[in-house]
Amino acid sequence: MPLKTKIAKGISLSCITVSDLLKARHLFVDLLGLEVKDHQEAYNWMEVGGEEGSLLGIGQESKEESCCLTKAGTNAIVSVEVYNLDEAIKHLKSKKIKFHGEIIEIPHEVKMILFEDFDGNKFWLIQAID
Asked: Burial letters for 27-61: b for 16+ Cβ neighbours within 10 Å, e otherwise?
C-alpha cells in the first residue's frame, strides 16, 4: 500500500568502514583526486566527493566511539535521508523493520540509526540537523 506522506527525501550518502582512515584518504584524495567535503576527527569520519553531488562517507573501524558499526572490508552502506527520523523509525518499526543500536547524533550535522532490509542488508536512516 503506498504511503500517504513521503518519509524519505532520497539517497544522500554511501559509506564504507576502513581499518585506516589515512590510507583511505590517500587513495580517494591523493590518488583519485576527490575532495574532502567533511572531516569529523572526533568520530573517525570523513566524507569525500567530486564535482557531482554524491558523497562517500569513510569511517575508521574502532572499539571506541565511532560512527562505524561494521567491520572494515565487509560493507558498503547506503544512507537514506528522511524528513523526520523519529517518525520514520516509528513507522518502520511498525512494519517489523529491524534496527541496530541507538540513534547516533553528530552535533550540528546529522542524527542516524542503522537498520536492515528483509534480507539483512544494512542502511543508515539519517536526518540532517539544520
From this structure: ebeeeeebeeeeebeebbbbbbbeeeeebbbbbbb
Parallel, antiparallel, or unpaired: how do β-strands 122-128 and 77-82 relate?
parallel
Of 5, 35, 8, 40, the C-alpha closest to 21 is 40
Please give the class, per CATH, of domain 8-128. alpha beta
Cell numbers representing residue 42 in the block: 572526533
Residue 29's SS3 state is: helix
What pTM did the predictor assign? 0.65
Distance from the Cα of residue 76 to its chain's centroid: 10
pLDDT in tens, 5-56: 788 888 778 888 888 899 999 988 988 788 999 999 888 899 998 877 788 8
Helix or strand (DSSP H, E) at 103:
strand 98-106
What are the extents of the domains in the chain?
8-128
Beta strands 45-49 and 35-40 are antiparallel
